[in-house]
Design a protein that fits this description.
The protein has four helices and no strands. The chain is mostly helical and 73 residues long. It has one domain.
């Protein structure tokens, strides 16, 4: 993720979080690195959870299988 952000920031000359993280890695600023990793982990977790819940909600085959096996009774 860091590499992708840095590439976008270099192409569009947009200083942002990617450059900040790379500078933090170079200067060994561990609290900034840990904070960035925590935020990215939370974002990935939330997106994955939203996709899983929406897949379960939108896929009618899963709902029918659950009703047949008695999970909704």
């Amino acid at each position: 993720m860091i590499g992708g952000v840095v590439v976008i920031e270099v192409i569009f000359a947009y200083p942002g979080i990617g450059k900040m993280v790379v500078d933090s890695i170079r200067s060994r600023d561990y609290p900034v690195i840990q904070g960035y990793l925590l935020v990215m982990a939370i974002i990935v977790f939330m997106v994955n959870s939203a996709v899983d819940l929406s897949y379960r909600y939108l896929n009618p085959e899963l709902r029918l299988k659950e009703r047949k096996h008695g999970k909704w009774s």
